[in-house]
Amino acid sequence: MTNSRLRKYTENLLQHADVVIDGDRPWDIQVKNKNLYRRVFMQGSLGFGEAYMDGWWDSESLDELISRLVKAQLDDRFKSIALMMTTLKAKLFNRQSAKRAYQVGEKHYDIGNDLYANMLDSRMIYSCGYWKEAQTLDEAQKNKLELTCKKLHLEKGQRVLDIGCGWGGSARYMAENYGVEVVGITISSEQAALAKENCRHLPIEILVKDYREMQGCFDRIVSIGMFEHVGYKNYRTYFKTIEKLLQDDGLFLLHTIGTNSPSEHTDPWIDRYIFPNGMLPSAQQVSSAFEDYFILEDWHNFGPDYDKTLLSWHKNFNNAWPEIKENYDDRFRRMWSYYLLASAGSFRARKNQLWQIVLSKQGLTDGYHFPR
Questions:
Q1: Distances from the Cα of 29 to the Cαs of 13, 63, 79, 133, 243, in angstroms?
Q2: For 9-24, what is the mean pLDDT?
Q3: Among 5-14, 145-154, 218-227, 319-328, which stretch is predicted with the lowest mean pLDDT?
Q4: Distance CA 279, CA 260 (A)
Q5: What is the bridge-based pairing of β-strands 218-224 and 159-163?
Q6: Cα angle vertex 141, ends 353, 194, to 5°?
Q7: Cβ neighbours, 10 Å, residue 16
Q8: What is the phi/psi pair of residue 292, to 5°?
């Protein structure tokens, strides 16, 4: 099929999303290379993302463009070889095995603390903020941490395990404001180094460990923005591990991105460039994985707040680019912008959700309550 016929076919598809090629609205797509259509039809979302990185197309409002494409379900029209290979590998192999657990740390979280320090809030919280009554990113992240602590019923003297502790922001908040002792684990050596510095002089221990390597007993366990790296073949192992580490009267809070239907893989572009071996769980996959281990106390969805969070990160990233560009190249800048803005568009379209789930081992006799 010629480029002109592929363009015509693409134009007809884009009508469903009210998107025009070379149109004058912010969400319209500006094509810079006529080979774009063939690349997308051959490679699907992988080719679409790589073409953006290569400057083959642009959009003034990339986030709104992606939101419209997702709402129109056009992302499901292109089943590429790359997607089939990603799916096949997810079925044949445990892509999130203990041996592979540290790959995402090396590929994503270790790329540069300067990048994250400039992009995130002052506590360096790399997960969705809670924007109720918040005007700034710092306020939204503080609100999320406070909400998390209240849901966990934290009390002075408790011992808390923070799975996926990042740069130590959540552990520090819990220790400083609630008087608890925290053990934080991460699969990123760069995160751990900065987390230890951020948490010095506090009752906080930071370890470079996979969750399957942990031992001990904790009054509370929290996992914020880490479950996306666990993988469907390990969900039961994950919850079984939490169950063994948690006191009988303890509480566990899981903060994770979720998706609307079960899957076994992630998007090929995300897998190659952003989060290798990652995948998003569905509600069914999560609930079936903790059956027999836990009682569900609370399930809270504030997915639309991730749209605001990602846009704030993108704004900070753009503003900081002149300071950090010596450590990265322009293709990285376009890749990172695509990651943040495409993710924002996906949350805006409600394809992705953000859940905070509270679980107990035996159920709370008087029921579960926290100030909303």
A1: 13, 12, 21, 35, 49
A2: 94
A3: 5-14
A4: 13
A5: parallel
A6: 110
A7: 14
A8: 80, -20
Residue type (1 letter), 146: E
Q: Torsion over CA of 287, 289, 291 and 297, rounded to 10 degrees? A: -40
- Rounded to an integer, what distance in angstroms lies between the CA atom of residue 90 and that of residue 62? 29
Per-residue pLDDT tens digits for 141-172:
999 999 999 999 999 999 999 999 999 999 99
Name 357's bridge partners: 254, 299
The pLDDT tens digits of the residues spanning 199-231 come to 999 999 999 999 999 999 999 999 999 999 999
Q: Whole-model pTM above 0.85?
A: yes
In degrees, rounded to 5, the angle at the alpha carbon of residue 271 between the alpha carbons of residues 31 and 71 is 55
Interatomic CA distance for residues 55 and 30, integer angstroms: 10
Between the two ends of the chain, the Cα-to-Cα distance in Å is 57
State the sign of the Cα–Cα–Cα–Cα dihedral 356, 337, 136, 162. positive
Type of residue at 188:
S
CB 191 within 8 A of CB 151: no
